[in-house]
């Protein structure tokens, strides 16, 4: 209730609660399952969802989904072809490639029917004078 003691705080609190869109439990469960499947099927590290690039991608996809909620939009219609991505990657080439060093750990498994599975366990940046084993 508004009074001279709380000023507009009551209204501000009410607006903040009304504007906050709570994600349903079912939606969160679906997202967890999709992220788990993404990591498992594509051999991605579990913390890929913490990456700025991945979060920017999800943000754009959510915005597109909000705009296209009335139409029948297929996922394959909005995702770029790998060749398109490789052509656009050159804008990241302006960064000094020699200043970035990474060490990746991957687990590879071959099934009895010769199917290869690759699991990225981690990719870690490091600063080292050399890429030799003694510096890693």
Intertermini distance: 63 Å
Average predicted local confidence, pLDDT: 76
Radius of gyration: 23 Å
What overall form do the CA principal axes indicate?
extended
Flag low-confidence runs. Answer: none
Using DSSP, what is the number of strands?
2
Oligomeric state of shown chains: single chain
Please describe the biggest sheet, giving its number of strands, its sense, and whether it closes into a barrel. Answer: 2 strands, antiparallel
Secondary-structure content class: alpha+beta
Q: In percent, how helical is the residue content?
A: 40-55%
Count, helices: 5
Describe the structure.
The chain has 136 residues and is α+β, with helices and mostly antiparallel strands. Among the domains are: 1-43, no CATH class; 97-136, no CATH class. It is 41% helix and 14% strand. It is built from five helices and two strands. The chain has helices at residues 9-19, 25-42, 52-67, 75-78, 82-88, and strands at 102-110, 116-125. The protein has a two-stranded antiparallel ribbon with strand order 1-2. The chain is extended. Residues 23-84 form the Hermes trasposase DNA-binding domain. It comes from Rotaria socialis. InterPro entries: Hermes_transposase_DNA-db.
List the helices and strands and how they pair.
Blueprint: H1 9-19, H2 25-42, H3 52-67, H4 75-78, H5 82-88, E1 102-110, E2 116-125
Antiparallel strand pairs: 1-2
Key terms:
Hermes trasposase DNA-binding domain-containing protein; 2 strands; extended; 136 residues; Hermes_transposase_DNA-db
